[in-house]
Amino acid sequence: MKYITPLLLLLTSLCYAQQNYGNFTKVTAVRVVRDKDYGPCSISGYVKQAPFTGVKLQAVQYDDEQLAYALVALKKEAKQWERKPLPCTSDKTFEGVAIPNMYIVQINRYRDTLYTTTGNASLYFPEEEAEYVDATGKLNGLLNEELCFFFDRNYADEFITHRGDSIAATEVRMNGKSLYGQKRKSFEKNIEKFQTIRTDSVFAKDVQVVKEFWINNYKLKFNAKGVHTINAYTVGYEFPINIDYTVAGIKIGDPEEKLYALYPCSTEYKNWGADISDLNNNYYYELHFTEEKGYAIFYIKNKKINEIEVAFPE
Fold it and tell me: How is the chain classified by DSSP, letter by letter?
C-alpha cells in the first residue's frame, strides 16, 4: 500500500489535536450503487435524501490512520492538478451519477470529505463545481485490495439476483408453541395471558382501531387470521414471569455472529440500513418465511440482537 506523506503543516496541526483530544481516526468510503437511474448528480444528493446503506448507497469503514492522513494531504495536492469545470450540484438530476463516491475522513476533531468521479479518476470540489484530474492514479494507489474491490463491485446486479435465507413460519415460537395462526383466545389459553392491552385510533381514509397486546417485552397485534406482528425489545430488567421467545432458535440478546453462522445468505451484506455516520451500529438482517408467509427482521446494536420484528401476512 502506498501513502502520500502529509504536508508538514497539516501533520503538525493534526498531531497537536491528537495530543489534546485523544486518538480517534476513521475513514468511511461511500458509493452510489444504482447509478443508471435518474437521480441527483452527486452522491451528496443521495446522502441528503436518505443517509443509510442499502440498495442506493453502500459504505465501508476503516480505522486506518495512514489512509486518513494521506487522503487529507491528497486533497490539498489535488489543487495542483489539471482543473476542468463540472457543473454538478446535489440537486441536479442526471441519468447516472457524475460524482458517485465520497470519503469521509475523521481525525480527532478534524473532519473532511473528498468527492470523486467514477473510478476515482478526479477529485471534485463542489464549491467550485470543478474536478481536478488525477492523471497518475494517486488516489487509487492509496487503496488496499478490499477497498478496490468495494469500488469495482457491481452491487446493482447482485441485488437483483440475491436471495436471502428462508425459514418456516412455524419456527416463530413462544414457550415452545408456534405463533403462526395463533388467535388471541388460543394464545392466552395455550401460552400466557396478556398483561397489558392498549387501544389506539388510526385516522386514515377510515378510522381504524388498533389493539396492542403486551406480555413482558413482547408486543403483539392480531388480525382475522391470528397473530399478525410481533415485536421483541431489549429491556434492562428481568420480568417475574419468564417467557421464552425464539425465531428459528434466535432470541433477543444473542450475538450477531450466530446469525452469520446459521444464515450466511441473509447476512452477506453487512451494515444494511445503518446510518453512514454510525456505520457499525444499528443495522439489520432479514429472513423470509417460506411460501410467502411473511418475514423476520433482526436489528443489531453493539454486535447483539437488540430487537426482533416478525410479520405474518394480512
Answer: ---PPPPHHHHHHHHHHHHHH---EEEEEEEES-TTSEEESBHHHHHHH--B-SSSEEEEEE--HHHHHHHHHHHHHGGGS-EEE----TT-EEES-SB-EEEEEEETTEEEEEEE-GGG-EEEETTTTEEEE-TT-HHHHH--HHHHHHHH--HHHHHHH----EE-GGGEEETTEE-TT--HHHHHHHT---SEEEEEEEESSSEEEEEEEEETTEEEEEETTEEEEEEEE--SS--SS---EEETTB-TT-BHHHHHHH-TTTTSSTTTT-BGGGTTSSEEEEEEEGGG--EEEEEEETTEEEEEEEE---
Report the amino acid identity of residue 157.
D
Q: What is the pLDDT of residue 93?
A: 80
The pTM assigned to this predicted structure is 0.85
Q: Which of 104, 98, 76 is nearest to 32 (CA)?
A: 98
The pLDDT score that the predictor gives to residue 218 is 97
**Span 189-241, pLDDT tens digits:** 999 999 999 987 555 566 667 899 999 999 999 999 999 999 999 998 889 99
Task: Indicate whether 2 pLDDT > 90.
Answer: no
Domains by residue range for the chain, with CATH:
8-157 (no CATH), 166-311 (3.40.33.10)
Residue 214 CA to residue 192 CA, distance in Å, equals: 11
